[in-house]
């Protein structure tokens, strides 16, 4: 089982998303945060479970119809590198 490590950028993405949603609905923002965080958990046991990413060496989890979690599989961990809204331009 691999450790899941969130990059500073991915944590910032998650914080920005939940802050934006919390303006209208704090409960929905917290539920979405949990959903996004939990979406990547299966990758700890099965790193290649989710689809290959659009950038070489990445993989993607569709955490919600509007949000994709992008990660890399490293030797000792899963490194979450971004949380992206589906309507935004892919980095």
TrEMBL record:
Source species, domain of life: Bacteria
Keywords: Toxin-antitoxin system
Pfam families referenced in this protein's UniProt entry, alphabetically: ParE_toxin
Signal sequence residues: none
Coiled coil region boundaries: none
Family: Belongs to the RelE toxin family.
The protein's name: Addiction module antitoxin
Organism for this UniProt entry: Devosia insulae DS-56
